[in-house]
Each structure stands twice: as C-alpha cells, then as structure tokens.
C-alpha cells in the first residue's frame, strides 16, 4: 500500500511527464511550422528566381549585362530584411560588448574624453601615402594583363602604355597625362585590334567619355563580359565594367543593378582573403556605397549577409551604416522634443543596433577609419557611455587624419544645438593651424570651420564672423603659412591651388576683410576658380575688378558709385543721373592701379553708354567688344579671337555645370529683347539655351514667396544613329551626332513653361525676339511665334540672363562635356506700358488692336499671328487668307501661319488647296484640333476620288477628338460636325448621327441649318459630300 506521500510523488511525476510530452509536441509542431514556413519561402524564392530568369544560362548569355553571374556559387536574390538576416551578427556583437568597452578605453588612453589636440597626430598616415598604396593596388590589374593577355607583342605594348596612364589618372596621381593624351592611347589600342577584355573594358570607358556613344560602349562591354567570365582576370574588373554600364546607360533596370550587386559580392568574397590590400578594398567599397541610393545599399547589405565567404568586418560595417542611415532618415531632422515617444524609441533602437555592429567592426579592424566616422554621430546623441564624439574622431583620423568626413561629422557635434559651443570651434581651428602641416589639408580646415559655421549657425549673417573671432584665426593662419613657406621654399603647399586660393579670398572678401582678400587674389596671379566667384550667377569677375579698384582713399567713393550704377534702373529715371555718374566715373578712372582696376572702369564706362541708350528709348546694343565689356560670362573657355565683335562663342566642358552670360546693367520691364542663339553638342543628351528673366539672389516679393522666373529658349535632343551591326559597334564620330529641337516658352502662369515641337528647325543660329510686359509675353523663337497672357502680373524688376544647360543621356553623368554655344546680336529696348485688350474684350476691339499693331510693327510676326487668330474666330476667311499669304511670303518658315492659310482656304471652300496646306501644316507642326478636323472632313467629303480617303480621315478625326481632351481644347460644334462626316464616309451612320447631334446642340444659328441638313443625310444612310463646283 502506497503512502500518501508516495502517491503525490507519483502524481507529480506523471503530471511532469505529461507536461514534458505536451511541450515536446508543441515545440515539434512549432519546428514543423517553422520548417514549413521556411519551405514556403524557399519555394517562393525559387519561383521568383525562375521568373526573373537568374538561373537560366540561355537568358544570361543572350543579355549578359542585365543578368547576374553567380559563377559556381548558388543563385540567390538580393531581397530580404537585412535586420532579420543580421540577427546572429547582432547577437555576436552584443556579446562582445565587454571586449569592445575594454578596447575603447585602452585605445583612448589618457586622451579619453579630452579636447582635440591635432598636434598629436603629426605622425599619422597622410592621404598621399594611402593614395600611393591604392595606386599599387590598382596596378595589380596591369600586372594581370601582362601575365594573362593573349595580345600580340606590339598590341600588348600599346595596352600596357594605356593602362599605366589610365590607372595613374584614376588614382589621383600628380602629373598624369591629359584626357586628350589618354584618348589617343585608347584609340591606338582599338586600331591595333586588341581582343583583351580587361584592356577593352577601360578603353571603352575612355572612348565613351569622349563620344557619349552608349550603343557602341554597351556592345563592347557585352563582348568583354563574356570573355571575362571565362578568364582568370580578378573579379574587380567585372565590378568596374558593371559600374560603367550602370553609370552610362540611359535607363537602368533591376537586372542591371542586381548584376552589379552580385559582382560586388563575388569580388568581396575573392578579396576577403587578401589581407595586404583590404584597406584598399574597403576604400573602394566605401566609394560605391556613397554614390548609391537606399535600395542599392539594402541589396548590397543583404548580398553580403547571405555570403559565407565575405569577412565579418564588412558585414558588421555595412549593416551598422545602414541601421544608422535608417534611424537618422526616419528622424527627418527633427528635434527630440518634436518626436513622439514611439518615434524616439524607434530612433534609439536603430542607433543602438548600429552602434553595436560598428563598434564590433572597430574591434575586428582597429586600423580602419570607416566605422569610427559613423560612430561620431552615435556619441553625439548620448548613446555612447564611454566615448565622446571627439574620441571617435581620434579613432578615425589616427588612421587617415587628413580625410574630410570625420572633421565635418565632429563639427556637427560641436554645434550649440547638440550641446557644443563656439569656443570649441575656435580651439579646433587653432589646433588645425598649429599642426604645421601645410603640405596637407589640415591647416585649411581653419577656414572650413568658419565656412561651416556660416552655413549652419550664422546663416548668411556675416557680421557673426567678427563676434566669433574670425580675424584672430585668419591672422594666425596667414602668419603660420608664411613661416611654413619660408621653411619649405621649394614645396608646393596643399592650398596652392585655384580652388583654395579662391575659396580663401572669397571668404575674406565676404567676411569684411577686403585688404586681406586683395592680397590673396594678387598672390594667385589670375590662377583662380571662377566657378566659386560666379556661384548663383554672381558677377564674380566684375566684383573682383571692383575689389582692386576700391582701394585706399577712393574705396568708399568706388563702392558708392558701383551701388548706383548697378541698381535696378526704371524707365522714368532721369538722364541727369547718368550725367552725374559719368562725371564721377571720369574723376575715379585715373585712380586705377593695375590691370583689374582698369578693367573695372572699362566695364562701367560701357555700362554708362548702355544706360544712356536705355533711358533715351533707343536700342541698347550688347556687343562683346574687348572680351565682353558690360557682361559677366561663365564658361570654361571663350573664343575671344573671333573677329566678330557681336558674337560670343563659349565652350563648356566638365568643369562647369551650366554656362551663362548676363549684362551687368539691371533695367526694368516692359522690354523687347532680341538675340540670335546657337547650341552645338559633342555628346548625346539634352541642351537648352535661352533667355531668362529672374531673380538671381533668392530674394522674395512682399508676400514672402520667391519671385518667379520667366524664360524662353530652344531645347536640343542630341543622339547618334542607331547601330544596325551585330557584335561590337565602332564608336561614332562627332559629325554623326544629330539633333531634334523643341522650343520652350512661358505659360499662362509665369513660373511655368510649356514646350512645343518644331520639327523643321535646322541647326544653326536662331532668332529670339521677346517682348516682356506685365500682363503678357510675345516671342518669336526661330520659326515659332507665340503670345501668352499671364494669370498674374509678371515681375518688372528682375535680372536678364542668357543660359545654357545640358543633361547627358547617361543616368549618372548629368553634365555632358563638349557643348558649344553662341550668342550674337544681343540688344534690348524699353517698351511703353501694355494696352493689350482683355481676353474677354469684344472681338471687334481685339481686331482693331492687332490691325493697329501690324501697321506699327511690320517686322514683327506675333501681331500678324494674333490677327490671323481673331480673323479665324471672326470668320473673315478672305482677310485671313490675305494676311496669312502675305506673312508667309515674308516669313516662309512660320508653321502657325501655314495652319491659318490652310484653314482660310478650307473656309473659302478651296478644298484641294486647303488639303495640301493643312497636310503640310500637320507634317511640320504640333497637333492642332482645328487643322486635324478640317483635314479629316476634306478627306471624307471632297468629290475628287484621288483626294478622298475615308479610312485615313476617320483615323485623323478620332485622333483629333482624343487630343482635344489631352490638350484641354474645347471641342466645338464644327469639330463634332467634322467627326460626323468622317463616320458617315466610313458607313458608321449611328456614330455619325450622335456626333452631328452634338454639333447641332452647340451650333450657332447660321450653322445649325447646315448641320440639320446633314443629319437628314445620315438618317438616310448617306454620306456628306461637298457641293459640286460650277
């Protein structure tokens, strides 16, 4: 007999066994469910891979640039949640937190949480040292070519010469060959018919940069890629090839990007075993990361996490970066006080997870500068209990102390909004200067600090620089620089470049130290970066001349004179003001010392002549005498040797994003502006050149909104003929490049523009004749006249600007080189205030106004166009035909007028002539509903069987109905009647009756009777025909 205690033990045991069994069953089912879920995911992934064709060798072979090459490895997708995939890595990093903390404390030593002292880093690695190593890293590609190429000896010699020059240039080595010399070497390789895929990958890149011929480049890279797959060349060559493809393609597909990502993963797998070059690998990987978007970065992180061969450092580094990017991105620049509790917790979690990965990456590779840069922002938020931002700054710069990223990251943490103060910036600037390393960028960060504060703290208030103590920093910098220069007389300083000479001089000028700026500009001896001086269309060259003129006792007088001459001049200003300015100009001119000061008075003398002509109501001529007196011109190269003083020829290369020219005088609208313009491209892509009337310095009107700009011009679409050859295509020559043109002109709303096709326009010089009024704009652009009423008053006080912009067809090359633009016969004239009748004014009043304008302005085509419009609206076909014929005799290329001539002949029932004129108008110009519907009716109703074409007429009529919706054009009674005629001619009397009923409902009394008679024909299933002529 069991005792009660024994019975309880047995019961408890049995109960435990039952519970264990139930738990085992539960875990078993969970495992089965997890396994089933994983199996379902695997099936889904396999299905997606099959759908994409990534596992299909045939599809990859047919289009290798668009399909990833997995080599001998498994096929995988670059999709998935990188947070989930990195969970094991996160746990590994978290478990090492004790080691990480010890590492941080040991590495910091006595400098832990101490202020920055850059003198301590004199012994650290300078960028030029690393660049030398990176150059050797890239030279391994040359070594691979020498060992593996099958080129003949003479071809190999040319290939080696090209590769040496190319790799020298792309690694930023001094004294590299010019672009023209490298292009010549590339062409030599092509002439010798090399078949080496490594060599041709880079040769193709160089030739694409010269020509922009993407078809030839992509065909060559396709051939190279197939050869590289079966070669022993390093994987990095395929990475570069696919980077070029993504950069230079006009459209980039998912396949292109996935193929690039897979090639990067395979390269990292290959490179992870090369300890000697890992810092170079990381440097290149960081560059790829920076230039790509979030989607690409997600794919790269996922690809690395799915690989078992890539070193853990890269996985932790990239995952940590992505977590921080996401956390800061979701914060969207908000202060903590403006975030909800949930948003704060999400931000904190992202920061903490990113911190764990990046700190572990530092533990794995203490010599890497990359993770510490990102950890500066973590410490800035207060989520690092050991390190301050300055500590992570040290960890970065002690490995590569002249790299700019950690400096700007540290400055963010020093702003008052993040708990810092301006005294930290002063101290930091002093340490930079005291480093005495003027062979590096380090001392120049003193100026970068002040510019950073100007942009992020002082916000356009330059007087804050004096309070900050800028003059003390500047004097310290200039003194130390002169000492260093004296101690190293044969050395070129880091800042002895056009960029830094200009940057320092411009800062000194804006901060209120003109004497120091003058000395800096003088030392440059004209070797300046004018793109900085002319940023935001600033008249930088002119203001530089003024700086040299405004010296000594006459400084205040020159500045006062300059302010007066460059103010906005109104039409009611007095000529006596010009007389007074000219008298002062005569008195100041003899004080000029030096070429630039004399240039200032040459400019202002020209401006006085132009202002006098403007106020007298004469044409103001803007010639380009003496290298553009009276102009500020931004261009890489200007052909001043042209004998024609009225012509400006500018060439734009990669140096400048946009080129422009602006008169130095500022006058008030209404204005009439005339110029002849031309654009010539040496690269496929878009160019647009024209005239702008805009506020150049971002000022606003009284209501606080930015003043809108008005612009008119011509847009060119440049391309090569499509290649029809199979296999690699030869690169086109410049003469093969051709263009189609469109015009762009102001819309009814001043800050929008509309585009119109002009199909017959040929390359060459084209006239822009623009009348700008407060209530309207009239323009003749080449063979396109237009008049637009504004919905709101246009700004009368603005700046006149001639500008060319360009955009490459390549995705990542927005600024193609080799643009030539020409400007000729520029002039303007003030106009009286507009007396344009209201749009709702009686038709007779509008007819009278435009007839008067035609008589007053016989050489302007726009009033003739508007008169044709009102004649057509009024139904005066005889007068419309007379005006259109007369205008076309004088301006035969005006397609808009050609339309009205055809419509006049149609209204006069001269149908064969009308059809010929309307077909020409449709061929030459954009779609017009009146023209299309009239032509459709003629083709349906004309009695001549040779001209009648019912099927084509119906297509045309249906198209006209559709575009009336697209263009928001009112579909009038006559249009419905035209459509009905076309339906009836094709035997569709049901639709003809419906359309004609719409016409009857909308028609005026004089047309209703005609349409009702047609309705009877349709009811009797008979088509409409024009009456027979006697």
Automatic annotation (TrEMBL):
<dbReference type="InterPro" id="IPR019734">
    <property type="entry name" value="TPR_rpt"/>
</dbReference>
<feature type="repeat" description="TPR">
    <location>
        <begin position="973"/>
        <end position="1006"/>
    </location>
</feature>
<keyword id="KW-0802">TPR repeat</keyword>
<dbReference type="InterPro" id="IPR011990">
    <property type="entry name" value="TPR-like_helical_dom_sf"/>
</dbReference>
<protein>
    <recommendedName>
        <fullName>Tetratricopeptide repeat protein</fullName>
    </recommendedName>
</protein>
